[in-house]
């Protein structure tokens, strides 16, 4: 009896990572530094020291980069920031940059 040779064709799937976008907090004259730190810890899960450093960037430089996220997550984070700020009566804004 003749043996059959079975050859398997392997397909390699390459998964491309989505592009990442910067989420940036913008400085204003009304939002307290403590509130910015709270936002960074609650929404972005930053440690107290990391949140303080980003808050100082926002205060001193006019904006601070919070993190890099896929576009959908970046949009959701911006919305969360603006909702939390609105509920607390602050005009804190966030934006997305490439």
What is the end-to-end distance?
Answer: 65 Å
Per CATH, the class reads Alpha Beta
Morphology = elongated
The helix content is 40-55%
Radius of gyration of CA atoms, rounded to a whole number: 22 Å
Mean pLDDT: 93
CATH topology (fold) name: Ribosomal Protein L30, Chain: A
The biggest sheet amounts to: 3 strands, antiparallel
Please tell me the CATH architecture by its name. 2-Layer Sandwich
How many domains comprise the coordinates? 1
Q: Output the number of helix runs.
A: 3
N-to-C order of helices and strands: EHHEHE
Could you give the count of β-strands? 3
Main β-sheet, spatial strand arrangement: 2-1-3
Fourth CATH level, the homologous superfamily: Ribosomal protein L7/L12, C-terminal domain/Adaptor protein ClpS
- The unreliable regions are none
Strand content: 15-25%
- Structural class label: alpha+beta
Give a structural overview.
By secondary structure, this protein is of the alpha+beta class. It has one domain: 2-Layer Sandwich (Ribosomal Protein L30, Chain: A), CATH 3.30.1390. It is built from three helices and three strands, in the order βααβαβ. The chain has helices spanning 33-44, 48-61, 71-88; strands at residues 20-26, 63-70, 93-97. Strands 2-1-3 form a three-stranded antiparallel β-sheet. The longest helix has 18 residues, at 71-88. The chain is elongated, with a radius of gyration of 22 Å. The termini are far apart. The model has no long low-confidence stretch (mean pLDDT 93).
